[in-house]
Amino acid sequence: MDIFNKIKTNMGELGQYSALAHGYFMFPKLEGEIAPRMMFRGKQVLTWSLNNYLGLANDPEVRKADAKYTEQYGLAYPMGARMMSGQTTNHERFEKMAAEFEMKEDAYLLNYGYQGMVSIINALVDRHDVIVYDSESHACIMDGLRLHFGKRFVYAHNDMASCEKQLQRATKLVAETGGGILVITEGVFGMAGDLGKLDKIAELKKRFNFRLLVDDAHGFGTMGANGRGTGEHFGVQDQIDVYFATFAKAMAGIGGFVASTKEVVNYLRYNLRSQIYAKALPMAMTLGAIKRLELIQTNPAYRENLWTIVRALQSGLREAGLDLGRTESPVTPVFFTCPLEIVTQLIYDLRENYNIFCSAVIYPVVPKDVVMLRLIPTAAHSLEDVEYTLKAFREIKRKIDNDEYPHELADFNK
To answer: Is the CB of residue 234 less than 8 Å from the CB of residue 198?
Structure first.
């Protein structure tokens, strides 16, 4: 059978909605300057869907640096992978800054966060090793796990009893294989916004022999007294053996880094396939990352402004009786129980009648008949933005409670 024939009958869990959703519910186009207000289908909307936590995307200093370095270097230099012809002093300069900031011995700059995490997992373990990981781990972690030829045990999300049970299984197995154990979790879980229990996992190190890898994509720059991340928030930064962060969230950029001991980072430098066989991060982006990290280190006001908006938004939503689940971070999910038809009507109402744009998450990411509206507060938002949004959400909650939305799919083309 031609493998393309399968596409005709099975577009996948999300692809099955493509005819209905493309261009509106999925693959929407937000246009204009990156800001709380952008253009969607020809009109201005208040957007809560950009991972621009600290508001650096359009920060004047950042924009000036990005323009300067792009004009100076273009987007081609350096050509080639780091190992072959893509190494520069500025790549090394960022690594030194990142390592010092994260209180690690060394760091390695990555050309892209997602592929970086996949390669980190692939490089750290072999078929004799066992991975123990959280059940709600990000897709980049799951893809890394698929490359692992050894055993992997999943524990129920943030359930330390389950984690301990899987560590017991792993300990017995590595006694036979001669391998080691790698525990993987996230610092901030990007959908629900809850925190990985890094303090509790660190406690388990007293009874089990394992190394801890933390994906802190949403925690870097936002969590902790100095923005070092979720490890700093819990006071266990020194217990994180391998720390990973991406630039796509607080840094409003592309790329990422991994930090650990000098020995481990040097090993990764020579064994990360996504870096060995792919082009280095362009110089303009590398210098832009340096500028962003400098601002994070020297301007706590960015983080303070973010948390002012987070607290106002989340407390207001909770006071309105809305379900925010278990979030402990800037990620602000709002859960509704309703069928897909109502979901489309709800989103359509928000975008067309209230001019509010936020992302909607449906099955299989959340259970069937549940919709999660995912709001991302940023330092660029205002308290006026929050008040307007709270008013709108109180009204849509009333409509759902009173069953006022039509029980049919919204037609965004009308």
So the answer is: yes
Determine contact, residues 31/39, Cβ cutoff 8 Å: yes
End-to-end CA distance of the chain: 40
Beta strand pairing status for 106-110 and 43-47?
Answer: unpaired
For residues 26-36, average pLDDT: 93
The domain defined by 5-53+300-401 carries CATH number 3.90.1150.10: yes
253: CB partners within 8 A, 6+ apart: 247, 285, 288, 289, 292
Strands 256-260 vs 211-215: parallel, antiparallel or unpaired: unpaired
Cα–Cα distance for residue pair 141/133, rounded to 1 Å: 9
Q: Which part of the chain has CATH 3.90.1150.10?
A: 5-53+300-401
**CATH 3.40.640.10, the chain: domain bounds:** 61-298
pLDDT above 80 for 17: no
Q: Please check whether residue 373 is in contact with residue 396, taking contact to mean a CB–CB distance below 8 angstroms.
A: no
Residue 103 CA to its chain's centroid (Å): 22
Name the phi and psi angles at 186, rounded to 5: -100, 155
Q: What is the pLDDT of residue 414?
A: 66
Residue 387 vs residues 8, 309, 351, 356, 371: alpha-carbon distances, Å: 46, 10, 17, 12, 23
pLDDT of 5 strictly over 90: no
Cβ atoms within 10 Å, residue 354: 17
pLDDT at residue 361, as a whole number:
85
Q: Domain 61-298 - what CATH class?
A: alpha beta
Select from 66, 36, 71 the least CA-distant residue to 50: 36
**HEC readout, 49-107:** CCCCCCCCCCCHHHHHHHHHHHHHHCCCCCCCCHHHHHCCHHHHHHHHHHHHHCCCCEE
Give 306-321 pLDDT, tens digit per residue: 999 999 999 999 999 9
Confidence of residue 22 (pLDDT cuts 50, 70, 90): confident
Q: Which of 123-127, 197-201, 363-367 has the lowest mean pLDDT?
A: 363-367
* DSSP designation for 359: E
Average pLDDT along the chain: 95
pLDDT > 90: percent of the chain:
87
